[in-house]
Fold each of these.
Amino acid sequence: MGSITLSKVSKSFGDVEVIPPLDLEINDGEFVVFVGPSGCGKSTLLRLIAGLEDLTSGAISIDGADATNASPAKRGLAMVFQSYALYPHMSVRKNINFPLKMAGMDQAEADKRINAAAKVLNLTDYLDRRPGQLSGGQRQRVAIGRAIVREPSAFLFDEPLSNLDAALRVNMRLEICDLHKTLATTMIYVTHDQVEAMTMADKIVVLHDGYIEQVGSPLELYESPVNKFVAGFIGSPKMNFVTGPSAQKRNADSIGIRPEHIDVSSESGEWEGVVGVSEHLGSDTFLHVKLADGGMINVRASGDLKVKYGEKIFMSPQEERIHRFDPQGLTI
Amino acid sequence: MATQQSRSAARLMMAPAVILLLGWMLVPLTMTLWFSFRKYLPLRGGDLGWAGFDNYTRFIGSSSFWPSVQATLVIVGGVLIITVVLGIILALLLDQPMWGQGVVRILVIAPFFVMPTVSALVWKNMFMDPVNGLFAYVWKFFGAAPVEWLSQASMQSIIMIVSWQWLPFATLILLTAVQSLDSEQLEAAEMDGASFMSRFWYLILPHLARAITIVVLIQTIFLLSIFAEIFVTTGGAFGTKTLSYLIFQRVLESQNVGLGSAGGVYAIILANIVAIFLMRIVGKNLDA
C-alpha cells in the first residue's frame, strides 16, 4: 500500500512561488524519481510529501486518505536524508530502533525487525558501533535500515548518494534497486543526476523551476522528450541543438540530435567541422567538433576511431533520430 | 610532523609565556604555603616566627569552618542548577526565529557585562529592600507582608543574584550548541514519530552534553571564589559565609595572615575535591 496523489499542490516561501500548482499521481509499488537541476524545487516537493513543509495550497492524499495536514509521523512514510541524519550518540542498533521505540513497539518484535534489516543491509557486524565509526556507505545503509524497519507505505530518498564516491554510488544504486524489488514498496527518489534517474526509475518526473516538464518511463523520456529542456537534460553526453539551414530544411526552429546518433565520415556529410578535444574511453570516443560557424557538436563514435586534434571530419545526423522543436522549444 | 628544528624553535618561542604564567601561579602559591606555617599578625607584631600546623588546626577547628564549606557548596550547586536549566530553556527559545532577534540576544547577554558589585547592590537596594524594593511593592500589592530577603531568605537571595549574573554565560554557550545541531536530525526524528519531548530528551540534550559540561566546569571555577556579592549584600551574615569570605575575614578583619593562608590552602583542597568529582561525573562528555 503506498499510492500518493498530489492535487493542485503549491508552495511559496514569502512572495516567492517555489512550486506552482501541480498534479502528480504515484502508484503503489512504483519507483519514482524526481530529477531536475539544482533549485528546481524537487527537494521541496519531497519535503511537502513528507510533511516537513506545509502546503501553501492544494491537497495530498496517501492511500486514498487525505494527509494534507497530517503530521510527518502520521503519514507512514520514511525518509532517507542527504546527510543521513543519523543520531551520532546512539549505536547503530539504537538508531534503527529509534522509530520503533517512538512507536512504542514491543522490544522483542523490534529486535526481530532490527536483526532482519541488519541482515538485508549487511550491518550485522556493525550494530554496536557508533555512526562516527562507519564509512559513508555503511552510514547510508544504516539510514536505509532506520527507514525499512518501520515498514512504511513509501520511502522518500533525498539525494541519498550525493555524498558517496563514484564507485560506491554505483554499488548503492544497485542495492537500492534490489531493495525496491524485494520490498515492492513505493519509493520516491530525488536526484539531480540524470544517470541515477535513468538507471533506477520506473517513472521519471522531470522538474524545472517548480514545473513538471514531463512524466514518463526512462526510455519514453529519452526517445520522445516533449520539449527542449527535457531533451537536453536526459541523456549523457547532452543532446546537440542546431539552428539555421539544417533546421529550416526540416521545417523546425531548431533540431536536436544525440551524440550517439551522428555518423562520422572523412569524405562527406551534412556538417563539416574540425575535431577539438577527443575523449577516448576505450568503448567509445567522444569528439568535440568545432563547426565553421563557431558552433560545437558532440559526437559519440566507436572506440576504435582514430582522429587527431585539428583533423577535418564530416558528420550526418541519423534522419529518424532527429528531434524537431518549434520557437517555444516544444517538440513538433 | 614538526621537524627537530621547528620543535626547538617552538619551545623557545613559548618559553617566555610559560615562564611568566608559571611564575604568576607559583609565587602566590608558595607565599600562601609559606605564610600558612607562620604566626603572622601584621598589626600585632608582624611575623612572629614558625607556627607549625597551628594555623591549620585552628582554621578547621573554628565553628565557622564546616558551615562555610556547606554554604560554598550550596551556592555553587544552586547557581549551577538554575543557570543550566534556565539556560537550556532560554537557548531553545532564542533559537526560534523571531522579530528583533538581534536586540533580544544582546539584552540577554547584558547582565554579564554588569560588575558583580554593582549588580549585587542593584538587587539589594532596588529589588530586595523590604521598604523601597520592587519585590516589597509586589508583595504589598497582593496584601502580603514584604519579605526581608537578605536576612530571612539570605541564601536563596544570593543564589538568585549570582544566577542572574551567570545565566547569560550559560545561555550563550548553550545557544551556540543548539544552533550547531543538524536540523536534518530533528526532521528525521520528527518523521520517526518523536514528540517534542522525545526529541529534546533523545537528541537535543545529548547534543548539548558537551556544552553543559563546559558551562558547569567554568562556572564552578568562578563560583567557588564568589566574594563581591556576599560582601555588599549580607557581609557574610545569615549563614552566607562562604569559604572565601571566611578567609577574607581571617586575613583582614582579624588581621591574621597566617590563619587566612591556611584557609587558602583548604580552599585549594576543596576546589580540587570538587574538580575531581566534576570530572568523574561530566568529564567523559569532553572526549569523543
Amino acid sequence: MIELKNVTFNYSTQEEAGIPPAVQDISLQIHAGETVAIIGHNGSGKSTLTKLLAAILVPQSGSILVDELPTASLGADLWQIRQRVGIVFQNPDDQLIASTVIDEVAFGPENLGFSRSEIAARVQNALQVLELEAYAQLSISELSVSLKQRVAIAGVLAMQPRYLILDEPTTMISGKTADQLLKTVQRLAHEQGIAVIHITHFMQEIVSFDRVIVMDAGRILMDGTPNEIFARMAELQAVGLDVPLVTQLGHVLRAQGWANIPPVVLTPEQLLPPLDLEQSSSAIVVDPPVSADFLSAQAPVHLSVPDPSAIFALKEASYILRKDTPFAHEALRRVSLSIRAGQTVGLVGPTGSGKSTLIDVLAGLIKPSSGLFFFEAENTAIKGFNMARLRSRVGVVFQSPDSQIFEETVGKDVSFGPRQRKVTLAESRRLVQESLEAVGLSYEDFRSRYTYALSGGEKRRVAIAGVLACEPKVIIFDEPMAGLDPRGRRELFGLIQTLKQSEDLTVIYASSSLKDVIELVDTIHILDKGSVLFSDVPRQILAQAHELHALDIALPETVQIALSLRSRFPSLRTDVLDQAELEAELRKIHDHIL
Amino acid sequence: MLELSRYVTFGQYVNNSSALARMDPRVKLICAVLLIGLTSFLSSYLAFALCLLFCIVLHRMSHLSLGYILRSLRPFIIFLFIAFIFQVLFYTPAKAPQWLWHWWILGISQAGILASLLTIVRVLFLYYLATMLSFTTSMVDLTDGMESLGAPLQKIGIPINALIMVLVIALKFVPIFVTEVERLMKAQTARGLNFDQGNLFQRVSKMALLLIPLFVSGFKKVKVLNIAMEARCYGSSGGWHRTRLRAFQLQRFDVLALILTILVSSMLVIVNIIAF
C-alpha cells in the first residue's frame, strides 16, 4: 500500500515567485492490484504527484509511505522504493537508455546486481507479458512509437514493481494500439496484483478503472469510482475536464425520458436495452444498411485525380527517406492528390503513414524523389521555380511547439517571419499584433513575455501566431492537439474553426485520429504506409469506420459508440458526424424496440 | 534538401549480419586499436599500399557500400585540403631544400608535397578504420567490449563503467539531436529563413539561431533521462556494481581475425622499417 498523509510539495522557483504549491495537503491510499486513473487539466499537479509517489521528489511536509517505507529515506530503503514503484513517462524517446530492446529491458535488473540467469528470466518474462519477444534483438531506433512505449513498460516490469505509474502514455499513440496498451496494464493489475496509476486526458480510457482521482490546483477534488465521478458532469466541466461522450449522451437521452438507461452511462451497451429473442433482427431494420455496392459506386472519387489548377497537385509523388543509405525507407509511394484553394482538408493516417513527409513536401521543405509536385499549377521541379515563394505562401504548425519557437520573447518570435521578409518596423508590429489577437492572446500582455514560461496551450497559440504573421495562403497543422487537456483541445478547435472561416485560407489538418478532423474539414485523405488509400468527404469516410479502426486510426467517440452497438443492431449507421446525429440514430432504434 | 539524417552517419551501426558485424566486440576493439596505432606509425608509401590491400579485404567482409562510408567524409574534405596546402607551404626540409617555388617563409618542395600527402593518407586510413568500427559494431557491443576490456581498471578504482555509461548516453543523443536540428531547421525555413543562401558568415549566424532552442530541449531531455535512469535504480547498491545480461564467447573466427591482424601489423612494421 502507498499511503500519503498531508503531503505538500512546492518547486523552489515557484515558491520564490509566490505561486501556490504544485501539490497541497494531499492524503490518500493506493492498494495493491487497484487500477487508479488520475485526471486534471494541465498544471493541476498530476505529474508532481506521480514523481512524489515514485520517490523522485520528496514532500516538503507530510509523509509518503510505500509499503511502510518512507520516501524521504536514503540508501537501501530508497532503492527498495524505486524498485517497487515503476514509472513510465509520456515520451518513450526520453526514457529509453540502451540501444536494443533486450538490453533496455535488462537495464533495471542489471542495476540491481542480479545474477545473469535471474536477469535473463526477468527479461524473458517482461518481454512475454508485453508481447515483445519477436522484437528482442531489434534496435530501438527502428521501432514505432507505440512499440517503444511497450518497451518502456517492459523495462519497468522487469524490475517486478508492485506499483506501476503511467504518465500520459497514450499521448503519442492512438486508436487500437492505445486500447491494447491499456488492456495490457489492466491485465497486469488483475493477474499480478500490480497497482496501476494512470494519468490521462482521455476520459473514455478510464471508464473501466477501479477508481478515478480528479485533481485541481494541487488538491484532490474528487475520488471515487468512474460511476461516481462522471455523475458530476457540471463540476468536471468547471475545472476544464469532461465526461466521456457516451455518458453525456446517456444524460441527454435520460432527460428525454428513456427509462432503461442507468443514471451514469459508461459503455455504449448501456444506452440501448438488450434485444429480446422474440424480436427478430429483421424487425429492427430501420434504414437499409449502407450497402457495399453503394460505397463502391461512390468510391472512385474524382478528388484523387490531380487537378493542375489546384493550389497543390501531386502526381505519383514518392519520397525516399535517407536515400542512398542502408536505412533508406520509402515514406511516400506514388501519391496523387490535389487540394483546391480555400478547401479544408484532412490528412489522416496512423503514425508512420507518411503524413509528416507529405507535409514537408507540400511546404516545400523537401522535394519528391520522383513524381511531380505542382504549386499553383506550376511544376516545382523545373529550374527557376521560386521555392521561397512557395514557402512564404505555405505556413506549417508543427507537432511540437517547442521546436518551432526559437526566440526569447513572444513578440520577437512572432516577428521572426516578418523580419526574414525585411518588412518595415511598423508593418512588422502590425503583423505581430494582428496575429497574436487572431489566436486570442493580448498583444500588450504577451509581446514581452518569455517563451519558455508559457503553458502548453499558450505555446501552441504563439506557434500559430508565428505562422500567421507570415501571411500564408495555406496553413498546415501537424497533429495540433497532442498533449492538450480537454479545455485546451476545445479552445484550439474553436481557433482553427475561426481560421477556416476566412475565405482565401486553405487549411490542411494532419492527424492520426479522425476526432476533430471530421467536424472541421470537407475532404479527408486516408494515408497508410506512404500511399493514399482513399479520399472522400467525411461522411463517406465514416461509413468505412470498421476498416479505419483496423488501420489503427482513432475514431471519433460518436463513431466508436455506433460501431460497438452495431453488433447488436446491424442497421445502425456508423457515419454519424456529431452527437446530434448519433442521438437521432439511437432514437430511431429505440422507438422501434419499444 | 532538409534531411540531415541522411548526411550525418556518425555513430551509426548497420546491422547486416556480415562477418565483421558478428565479430566479438572485444577482439574487434583490440584489432581496431592495433590498426589505428599502426596507421599513425607507418611512414612509407609501400606500407600504406599493403595496408590498402588489407582494408579492401576488410571492406569486402563488411558488405557495406563504399559510397556510404565516404559520404560522411565530404564535409571534412575542404578542411583536409586546406590543411594540406598549409603543410606544403610551411614545410621546412631538413637538408638543403630543392625549392620548386619559394617566397619568404613559404615554399613548395617535392619533399614537402610527399610528406603532406602522407599525412592526408594517414588521416584517411584513420577515418576509414574508425568509421568501419562504428558501422559494424552496435553501441551495446562497443560499450560492453570496452567495459570488459577495461575491467582491470575498474578493479584499481577507476570508474570505467560510469565513464562508459556517459559515452553510451552521449552517443544515444547523437541521432536525437540530429532529428531535433532537422526539425528546427524545417520550422525556420517554413517561416522564411533560407539556410542555403548568404556568405559563410551569414550561414554561420543562421546556425547560431538553432543553438538556444537546441540547448533548451537538450537539457530538458537530459533531465528526464536522468530521472528515468534513477527510477530504474541506476547507481544503487552504493558503488556501480552492475551485473550484465550479456556474456561474450570467443569464436574461431575471432581468434583467426586477431592472429591475422597481429601478423599483418607486424609485417607492415617490418616493411616500413626496410623501406626506410
